[in-house]
Amino acid sequence: MRVFIDTNIPMYAAGTAHPYREPCRNIIKAITSGSVDAATDAEVFQEILYRYLHINRREQGLMIFDKFQTLMGDGIMPVTMRDVGLARELVVAYPALSPRDLIHVAVMIHHEIRHILSTDRNFDTVKGIMRIDPSEFK
């Protein structure tokens, strides 16, 4: 089963003490060992840069970006105009989702990925997508 890795996974894994820190580190370890078939999209990397530059923690953001990019390798999917168009269509069905999350859902649909590892409960509203909370990851 291929699983989409949301932005919050590498960010919590690299962050300070938090209930999600260890579960997210376990996910990163599972990806590293190959026991999880992981995928993500290019938008996740934009989110990482945006967040860390916004809070003036550039070096930490660049470190997380670089390590996650290396980890994901060929598992990074592009965001195409087809994905953006589908995200636009999904706005009506899923008004609680942010534009970034709509892009992730569109990419997942495009690549037939039905599971997402994320702390974001808004994904629970998406039909055909199953969110796995990091604290429930086995």
Structure commentary:
The chain is an alpha/beta fold and 138 residues long. Helix content is 53%, strand content 12%. The protein has a 5-stranded parallel sheet with strand order 3-2-1-4-5. The mean pLDDT is 97.
Give the key terms.
alpha/beta; 138 residues
**Mean pLDDT across all amino acids:** 97
- The fraction of residues in strands falls at 5-15%
**What's the structural domain tally?**
1
Largest sheet: 5 strands, parallel
Low-confidence spans: pLDDT under 50, at least 5 residues?
none
Round the Cα radius of gyration to an integer and report it. Answer: 14 Å
Shape: globular
The level of helicity is 40-55%
Oligomer state equals: single chain
Strands ordered across the widest β-sheet: 3-2-1-4-5
* Structural class by sheet pairing and helices: alpha/beta
Order of helices and strands: EHHEHHEHHEE
**What is the CA-CA span between the terminal residues?**
13 Å
Write the layout of secondary structure elements.
Elements: E1 2-5, H1 8-14, H2 21-33, E2 37-41, H3 42-54, H4 58-72, E3 76-77, H5 81-93, H6 99-110, E4 115-117, E5 130-132
Parallel strand pairs: 1-2, 1-4, 2-3, 4-5
Helix pairs in contact: 1-2, 3-4, 5-6
